Amino acid sequence: MPTTTRSSGRVGERLRATSKVLPEHARAHNRSLVLQHLFHEGPTSRADLARATSLTRVTISDLVSVLIAEGLVEELGTRPGQRVGKPAILVGLRGDAFQIVSLDLTDAAQMRGAVISLTGQVIERRALDVDGRTGDELTDLVARFARLLVAQATCPVLGIGVGSPGVVDDRGRVIEAPNRGWYDLPLAEILTDRIGLPVQVANDANTAALGEFTYGGAAAGMLLLLVGLGVGAGIVVDGIRVHGVRFAAGELGHTTAVDDGELCACGRRGCLETVLSTRALRSAVEGKDPTTADADLAEVGRVLGTTLAPVVSALNLAEVLLSGPADLLDGPLREAAQETLQQRTMPAVSAGLQLRMASLGQDVVLLGAAVLVLSAQLGVS
Ligand SMILES: [Zn+2]
Questions:
Q1: Global confidence as pTM
Q2: Where are the transmembrane segments (predicted)?
Q3: Distance 179 CA to ligand 1 centre (A)
Q4: How many Å lie between the centroid of ligand 1 and the Cα of residue 174?
Q5: What's the CA-to-centroid distance between 260 and ligand 1, angstroms?
Q6: Over the stretch 149-169, which tens digit does the pLDDT of each residue have?
Q7: Which of 17, 80, 30 lies closest to 57 in space, CA to CA?
Q8: CATH of domain 218-358
Q9: Per-residue pLDDT tens digits for 291-309
Q10: CA-CA distance, 299 to 281, in Å (whole number)?
Q11: CATH class of residue range 23-93
């Protein structure tokens, strides 16, 4: 049961709801308020749930009864060290009620997948070689891989989340992912039809940003730069996941960063991707002595800082997160990028701005894909 309302043309989607809404959406919204609180704060009494959500005790009691009947929530006894009076029974999310299947399609050579608990524990992981498949063959392989992962789950599967490269709309249609041969492909719909479970598909960098927001403690105003074969960004502003009018928000990889730079796969020259992709970074440092390699990485950092400065200023972000190989990103590159950002933005923007490595490492897209499902099915993010 999706609890987020979706309509075309919206710039984004509010994450982590905190207040009441119109009556027609109230039930789903209130349900997500309760689940949200239990997800982030842990076991809570009904009275404290009422206080935290501003809902009445009666509404909370009804909602909790329904959630217990659905197997999502359980009673956990009383809090130890309770003061005088009738001890309140705590209710909490049942971590073992459901599992989520996540797929990370970022790597062109190998897709990664996992079975993940509602609390973000990876229970099982698998990888599958793509062997150069693209187009329909790749779609078939993704479906087979998803089915194999569903079979590994040890309790009912809440849904399947997929982080895909390319531009993906809010219904899980891949508008374009050129190097996968996917154009206007309704991937979420195809997988739902074949597997019979709810499927969410989103751009991989957006998915990674969601993973860091929910499981990595990232700020509600942040940009995550996913650095791999390509370079993409996911953006959260004031707690809203930014899609953009054509669902291409965050496509920073193909903004021109170097005048008369190298030819890019997109046909233009000097895109950020031509200096910041892992392949570009590896070839920039290969065979060089450490001092020269560090200087070259710092130069890329300055290019990155220059590209990010207007973005960070326009959105007044609290954090920029880098996700990718730490041996290349976390050092002279990151330091030079931070310094350049500081130099090119006014103090009101850059004061306290953090440019740091993402905290979830290799699992960032897989965990984000789990949040796609949590968000769509339970209203939790
Ligand atoms: Zn390009």
A1: 0.89
A2: 213-237
A3: 13
A4: 19
A5: 12
A6: 999 999 999 999 999 999 999
A7: 30
A8: 3.30.420.40
A9: 999 999 999 999 999 999 9
A10: 11
A11: mainly alpha
